[in-house]
Design a protein that fits this description.
globular; 339 residues; alpha/beta; binds 2-amino-3-ketobutyric acid
Length: 339
């Protein structure tokens, strides 16, 4: 009898950190992880088995297939938008070929145990591409099927993998004599920029918000790489983790889409600076826009319409902008750097 488990790829990253803590606290499932980097010791203590390596290593997935019955996959491993622009082929390998391997792995698991494997896929606002600032201003809160013309390798990868997931779920080997689709229950969230009080991101383009806050708490000067008027959607990490867990638990029959926007607030970079200054009045934050990274953020929507997530599976973030800063970010970040 193979043990039933939840698999998390990219487990050492920002979302993985919060997700493992929450899943372990719920205690409903044993967790196995894959990442190139080892988990922090207190997170590692929450997991059944930690595999060190790349999702591209076939032998790792084969080992897991022989040892465990995977019921749910959170496929978090990815190369983010800024990093992928420096190494687009590696970005494609990890983001697309890696996801294809995981989808195929989920299909094999589903076929071997006869039930669908739930596959949670974090997509991104990077899947959108608005051509200029006038369009961005007039587009307002964009719906999932609009403006799907990403300008980054990462955005292209995310958009394509949403389609790959839909293919495995609904159309896999559609010409075969027997029906093989339906073994992967694919569910994707287009995440906004995420801000965690306990980890700092790397390689993304929405990183200016978390970098600004963490630099202020460390007493370091920060030059923000986008203009003060730059606006994209954001959410604090605990709400992002809740959203993943809520979508994972949702009744399949309630889901009318495979891909859902989510958001909690959409401040300008200047508004983020003001809130950081309320928490850390000594903070030294200036603006030195990087023209090329600015262009990427300008191509992302100022807001997204998440009404489908709210009505289909009850998305309901706890924190708005004020509460996110006052009740989560500022107090926890203060504690992080004081200890
Ligand atoms: C990035 O900046 O690449 C990510 C994202 C918005 O998906 N944080």
């Amino acid at each position: 009898m193979r043990k039933h488990v939840t698999l998390i790829t990219g487990a050492s990253g920002e979302i993985g950190h919060g997700l493992i803590e929450r899943l372990a606290a719920d205690g409903d499932t044993a967790i196995i992880t894959i990442d190139l980097r080892p988990l922090e010791p207190e997170i590692a203590a929450c997991v059944e088995q930690e595999y060190l390596g790349s999702i591209l290593e076939t032998h790792l997935l084969e080992r897991i297939l022989s040892e465990y019955e995977v019921e749910r996959i959170y496929h978090l491993a990815a190369i983010l938008s800024t990093r992928a622009e420096f190494t687009p082929v590696t970005g494609h390998q990890v983001n697309v070929e890696g996801t294809l391997k995981l989808l195929d792995f989920a299909q094999s698991q589903g076929e071997s145990h006869g039930r669908a494997v739930t596959f949670l896929y974090p997509s991104s606002i990077a899947a959108y591409g608005l051509p200029n600032l006038e369009t961005k201003a007039s587009a307002g809160a964009v719906k999932e099927h609009t403006w799907n013309n990403p300008t980054t390798m990462y955005g292209c990868n995310k958009l394509y993998c949403e389609h790959l997931g839909r293919y495995y779920d609904h159309h896999y080997k559609q010409l075969a004599a027997e029906t093989l689709s339906g073994k992967v229950d694919f569910r994707a969230i287009r995440f906004p920029g995420l801000i965690s009080a306990v980890t700092v991101p790397s390689g993304g383009t929405s990183d200016y918000a978390p970098e600004m806050i963490h630099a202020a708490a460390r007493g370091e000067a920060y030059a923000c790489f986008v203009r003060p008027d730059t606006r994209i959607p954001f959410m604090v990490m605990p709400d992002a983790v809740d959203a993943l867990l809520d979508l994972a638990k949702a009744d399949r029959s309630a889901l009318r889409q495979t891909v859902y926007n989510i958001t909690a607030f959409n401040p300008s970079a200047e508004e983020i600076r003001s809130l950081v200054l309320e928490g850390f009045p000594e903070a030294d934050i200036s603006f030195e826009p990087d023209v090329k990274r600015q262009a990427i953020v300008d191509s992302w929507p100022a807001d997204v319409n998440d009404s489908a997530a709210r009505s289909d599976w009850g998305l309901s973030p706890v924190h708005d902008l004020q509460s996110g800063f006052a009740n989560y970010l500022i107090p926890l970040i203060r504690k992080l750097y004081r200890s």
